[in-house]
Amino acid sequence: MRNEEFDIIVVGAGVAGGVFAASQPSSTRILVVERDLTEPDRIIGELMQPGGLQALKELGLIHLIDGIDAQEVNGYNLIKGNDRFTIHYDEVQKGIRGVGLRNGKFLSNIRRELKKLDNITVVEANVNEFIEENGKIVGIRYTENGVSVAQKANLTIVCDGPMSTLRDKLSKVNKQVSSYFMGLVIKDLKLEHPSYGHMIVSGDSPILVYPIHTDAYRILIDYPGGKPPKMGAKSMETFKENVIKVLPPEMIDAFLKAMEEGDLKVMPNHSMKGQAFRKSGAALLGDSLNMRHPLTGGGMTASFTDIICLNRELAKINLKDEAQLEHAVNEYYENRGKGVETINILANALYKVFSDEDLKEACFEYLQKGGEQASGPLSILAGLNKSKKFLLKHFFKVAMQHPIHFITKPGKQIRLYKNALGIIRPILKDEETPAII
Q1: Cys-Cys link to 186, which of 24, 254, 312, 415 (CB 3.0-4.6 A)?
Q2: Alpha-carbon distance 353 to 78, whole Å?
Q3: Averaged pLDDT, 57-66
């Protein structure tokens, strides 16, 4: 490939990088470098909350979910033992809902979009390093078909995903694995609420089930801890038995059939607060910058919200003006937290709540009351309400919903409150850390 002039280089053609590139003005010359353009088969990034859909529409790219058999998701069915109830997105009647989809199909749509756009060049190659001049990043070096290529641009956007190879050059890396998702596609399910996500909290760890295409659902079983599950025959038999104990009866046969087909995949669940360096000429986006537990399906909503924030700043400037560009990137880092902090806080806090038996019971009881107690928290999870004050109000109301227990069950109630405080305090501290250092 001959050396060309570009305004922006995008490292990674995943959901974040692809949508960012596709959302740029047609006058902006963009190079997208992706290490593997084949359609992936992943078990995460398959549930897009209503806030994500709204953001995709705002970016002018809502058509990217067309033609891939994406399924409506209208709310959640919560299951704990024999108790179950539904919560629906209040905005469903306005046409606002979530979708379940196959991650690989969605990515293929995004990449087809990129290849159609005259201002975008897509290359399949491995990025090796940044090109730096006088302390500023001015481009990248990559290897394409065994040949080393250098390309320069005014701005390099790094969004090469959870396993980013470049993030440590641009940020303070604090990535942690909180648990693993073990995922299968299950079919032939006959559910009372087929267009809902199902959250099963009967066992020690949550299980998610949601539609991803016609007559097929994704099941994600959480495996807590920082070490991956053992995959030997004996371990798998124990795993299967433990899941059957907590699955609703209508899901068991389909789960066992999917296990027999042997397509179980395992993915680490990362958590990482965004802390970028002030490095001229480059910016981080998507999972390369910031991750939260995927329990609430907030990843795509957070990425698209960040893209909107960055685009807003880039639209104000001339990309060739170094001072303006530096200011725009700094503003993006400074302001992005306003759009994603509630998504991050809720995801990480809710996962820990479901790991505490007393808080899990209190949360289930609170949501089961319906009305504002259900629709309020769901509006945060949906990415539609981004008020941190509103989130915290409901979080502490879960722990304090029975003030009389300070008299009748003081030990348990005080422990409940202390545990809730112990969960939320460090998460809030993390989110209050500036995104740029």
Answers
A1: 254
A2: 15
A3: 97
DSSP 305-357: HHHHHHHHHHTTS-TT-HHHHHHHHHHHHHHTHHHHHHHHHHHHHHHHHTTSH
Query: Which architecture, in CATH terms, is 176-270?
Result: 2-Layer Sandwich (3.30)
- The CA-based angle 342-348-352, given to 5 degrees, is 135
Contact between 33 and 22 under an 8 Å Cβ cutoff? The reply is no
Contact between 417 and 399 under an 8 Å Cβ cutoff? The reply is: yes
- Give span(s): CATH 3.30.9.30, the chain: 176-270
pLDDT tier for residue 3 given thresholds of 50, 70 and 90: low
Architecture of the domain whose range is 5-71+96-174+272-339: 3-Layer(bba) Sandwich (3.50)
Mean pLDDT of 271-282: 92
For residue 152, give the amino acid letter.
Answer: K
CA torsion 4→8→11→12, rounded to 10°?
-110
Mean pLDDT estimate for the chain: 94
- Both tokens of 57, joined, read 């529409």
State residue 4's pLDDT score: 73
The residues facing 78 across adjacent strands are 85, 199
Evaluate if residue 1 carries a pLDDT over 70.
Answer: no
Residues of the chain with CATH 3.50.50.60: 5-71+96-174+272-339
379: helix, strand or coil: helix
Beta-sheet strands, E only, within 241-303: 265-271, 282-284
For residue 93, pLDDT over 60 is answered with no
